[in-house]
Amino acid sequence: MVNYQPFLSKDTSLLKTSEIRDLLKLTEGREVISLAGGLPDPTTFPAEDIRRIADDVIKEESAQALQYSTTSGVLSFKKELVNLSKMRGISSISEDNIFVTVGSQEALFMIFNIFIDKGDYVAVENPSYLAALNILRARQPNFIGIDVDPKNGTNLDQLETKLRQMKQENKKIKMFYVIPTAQNPAGTTMKLEDRKRLLELASQYDFIIMEDDAYGFLVFEGDSPAPLKALDKEGRVIYTSTFSKILSPGLRLGWVVAETDVIKEMEIYKQNVDLHTPTLSQYIAREAIKRGVIMNNLPKVKNTYIEKRNVMLQAIEENFPKEAKWSRPVGGMFVFAWLPKGIDTTKMLEKSMANGVAYVPGSSFYYDYSGKNTMRLNFSYPSKEQLRRGIETLGKVIKEELSAS
Amino acid sequence: MVNYQPFLSKDTSLLKTSEIRDLLKLTEGREVISLAGGLPDPTTFPAEDIRRIADDVIKEESAQALQYSTTSGVLSFKKELVNLSKMRGISSISEDNIFVTVGSQEALFMIFNIFIDKGDYVAVENPSYLAALNILRARQPNFIGIDVDPKNGTNLDQLETKLRQMKQENKKIKMFYVIPTAQNPAGTTMKLEDRKRLLELASQYDFIIMEDDAYGFLVFEGDSPAPLKALDKEGRVIYTSTFSKILSPGLRLGWVVAETDVIKEMEIYKQNVDLHTPTLSQYIAREAIKRGVIMNNLPKVKNTYIEKRNVMLQAIEENFPKEAKWSRPVGGMFVFAWLPKGIDTTKMLEKSMANGVAYVPGSSFYYDYSGKNTMRLNFSYPSKEQLRRGIETLGKVIKEELSAS
């Protein structure tokens, strides 16, 4: 049989498998409470509405809904995405500013490939979204890490200092990948004045912002602040969001709001990747916006998640050592914990799994694999009972680890 | 406003927009008979079956069908794909040899990125599938063109001569991208003895074969020969096919059959691109295989296309100049025509469009943009009446062009 190793391209060696997914495999078929995943609670899917919509669109529009469609997205869906984006405060855009993708993952994949060359300076929050970091790593940029503080969020003072230093060295940050709302994994949300300041820095130091608003519609405590794109006067922000958290991840739908110049580049790129996003998914989501299914369903999603978050936070309060810190996210699906410095959560994982609880070691979310004492805990998928028992067990494991060190 | 040009990555300049898609835009909103597209006839979609299936899977399996799923594909779907692949003669495989993609386009995108480096030698049929060539062009390989003769098909004598020459120069072809059945665009089908010979050459000269079997289930005249993968004893063949022609392009589903080493690389790559293929599409296609919808619908698809092909061939016979040659495809959706040498079909297109007929100039399908006298004509989408009128008009345009030159 042929050995494929000598045939692989050089790029292939740069690809990292997602630690989360490898980890999920370890839990398959075992009696483990997984706080490691990132799945929405399936009871939040408006399944009956989706069923009725699927039925209608296939009955009434099969010649279009089951056919090939255009690369940038189905026009009638893009029009509804203009409306949906407006509900996030993004106005003065048309369907020409919209691009439909296979989940926001594909949006990140395309944008990082379209813009980032080997050696480019790319700023990321530290920690940041693992799957985005993995795409970036394959582009071989120079990472500039911007710390995220559990209390004060993304450290813009640090960003400004670095920008000033780099300017003196004649270096430039090309792009800042940022998750301003319900940051994944750190759980922080950027204040409005910080958002404005970030845009000013982008203008002053001439960089692009890739804004990941995956949880923008999923803020369950207080108001969801306007995304950077809503405040963007120079067209510097490329915005992406997803239907995975507000309708159904199984449709694999994300969208981008950006200047038409960016949309054109995405169109050329996506012709190579997969020609277009599934048409049927787009027709279903179009109707879900149009018929109010998404907005009507949001209160249920938010209620489910705030209750589960509260259960998790209370259990952490009761079971984690006093020296630990953790986020109190106003949205999203995760709590992030900073344990006492001596603890290595990657090493501790095996013991935790043996005790029946899985989590994601936080270092995977750091571009430099620091944050060895951190962990990401999912509250959206497990039941409340599992959350309580899982955190209780995890608390014991941590305390044992502490007294052993 | 920000100017995005200075921010683009170097790779972005290598991307070519698909000529077919640009062309389709020109026909939008005009009274043009388009022989340029590549759309299936929507009357062949088993819409009512798909509607019932969608209804059932959302009703009975919404917690899974609307949820995230694994990167390589939904397990129960992969099992059905093993069965479907067997109907193409590919046996002794398991679900571990299957990988589900967003159309076979994504399979080609991933495989070419996983294997091809700048400067690698890649053999392609000349002409070959435009969208595959565009992905390859972005990888900057050295192309080795293998001529396709309207009568004798892909010229394996030429391939062998080149392989021998290159061996003397210490060079190696890494991969041969080939469409053995109902070749797109040339319409030829490789004979069984040639298939065996190609596999022997691959073994002797140690290269990989990327087999595109998009039309394997769509052979409407005679039997469909076994794909290379069915004859592959060394695991050298990476096979891809698609649901776009046998069920619905709007689901955007393709699949790969390959050695598990290849599947593993694809899994890592796809985690970056889009995490996984839409779950709902996979559940629908799974049931379509299981319930026999695909196999029961195939006779209708084949009948529709053989009738349309016959209409097109007869119209060409009656209207094209005697000096022209054209394919007589036993499957697929296209006729390819070689016009007298003096004619440049790219230049002629404007006149043809002014007369109300669009086609794709053939040079786009040649890696070296030769074949300036060729054109690809689609018979699957236009009505029979449109086919007759379109070819009649096109014949006049060609004859005018001939007498002018």
Strand order of the largest sheet of chain A: 2-9-8-7-6-3-4-5
Characterize the overall form of chain A: globular
Please name the CATH topology of the largest domain in chain A.
Aspartate Aminotransferase, domain 2
- Write the H/E string of chain A, N to C: HEHHEHEHEEHEHEHEEHHHEEHEEEH
GO molecular function (chains A, B): pyridoxal phosphate binding; transaminase activity
InterPro entries (chains A, B): Aminotransferase_I/II_large, Class-I_PLP-dep_aminotransf, PyrdxlP-dep_Trfase, PyrdxlP-dep_Trfase_major, PyrdxlP-dep_Trfase_small
Organism (chains A, B): Sulfuracidifex tepidarius
Keywords (chains A, B): Aminotransferase, Pyridoxal phosphate, Transferase
List the helices and strands and how they pair.
Two copies of one chain form a homodimer.
Chain A: H1 19-27, E1 33-34, H2 47-65, H3 75-87, E2 98-101, H4 103-115, E3 121-126, H5 130-139, E4 142-149, E5 153-154, H6 156-168, E6 173-178, H7 192-205, E7 208-212, H8 228-231, E8 237-242, E9 254-257, H9 260-273, H10 279-290, H11 293-319, E10 325-326, E11 334-338, H12 345-354, E12 357-358, E13 360-361, E14 374-378, H13 384-404
Parallel strand pairs in A: 1-12, 3-4, 3-6, 6-7, 7-8
Antiparallel strand pairs in A: 2-9, 4-5, 8-9, 10-11, 11-14, 13-14
Helix pairs in contact in A: 2-10, 3-10, 4-5, 6-7, 11-13
What is the gist of this entry?
With 405 residues, chain A is of the alpha/beta class.
Plain-language structure description:
- Chains A, B: Homodimer.
- In chain A, helix 11 runs parallel beside helix 13 (384-404).
- Helices cover 44% and strands 15% of the residues of chain A.
- Chain A is globular and about 65 Å long.
- With 405 residues, chain A is of the alpha/beta class.
- In chain A, strand 6 (173-178), helix 7 and strand 7 (208-212) form a beta-alpha-beta unit.
- In chain A, the strands form three sheets. Chain A has an eight-stranded mixed beta sheet with strand order 2-9-8-7-6-3-4-5, with helices on both faces. The first copy, chain A, has a four-stranded antiparallel beta sheet with strand order 10-11-14-13.
- Chain A has two domains: 9-46 and 296-404, Aspartate Aminotransferase, domain 1; 47-294, Type I PLP-dependent aspartate aminotransferase-like (Major domain) (Aspartate Aminotransferase, domain 2).
- The interface between A and B is large, with 86 and 85 residues.
